[in-house]
Amino acid sequence: MDTHFTNPLGPPRESRLTAAPQPGSGARVWAGAVIVAAGLGLIVLGGCFLYGVMLLVQHGEPGRGAWILQVVLYVMAFACFAGAALLLGVGLWGLTRLLLGKLDPSPPEP
Q: What is the CA radius of gyration of the chain?
């Protein structure tokens, strides 16, 4: 007896009208969000380094040690900004690919 609940003669039918959800897309979204958040955190950290430079400049003519500290702070700030640009680019590129559905399909399971 064939009912609409079971069909012992073959595998269950899959609807071709809707696309099957990609496994792990939620994890990819979270990974992209963490990368973007890390990029924004590096922007904040670079701003803190530049605030330290601003405090050094406000106090008049700095000595040799203050000039070295100022150069180190500038280098650290711009390194943070470069890293933030890289992280934001990679994170937003990955999230855009995920949103547009251009990710490589996962291999079928045997």
A: 26
Q: What does the block give as tokens for 81?
A: 């900004």
CB 95 within 8 A of CB 36: yes
Phi, psi (5° rounding) for residue 65? Answer: -65, -40
Question: What is the predicted pLDDT for the residue at 80?
Answer: 97
Q: What is the pTM of this model?
A: 0.67
The C-alpha atoms of residue 27 and residue 96 are separated, in whole angstroms, by 15
Domain ranges of the chain: 45-100
- Asked if residue 70 lies in contact with residue 50, where contact means CB atoms within 8 angstroms, the answer is no
SS3 category, 59: coil
Q: What is the DSSP letter of 24?
A: T
- E runs forming strands in the chain: none
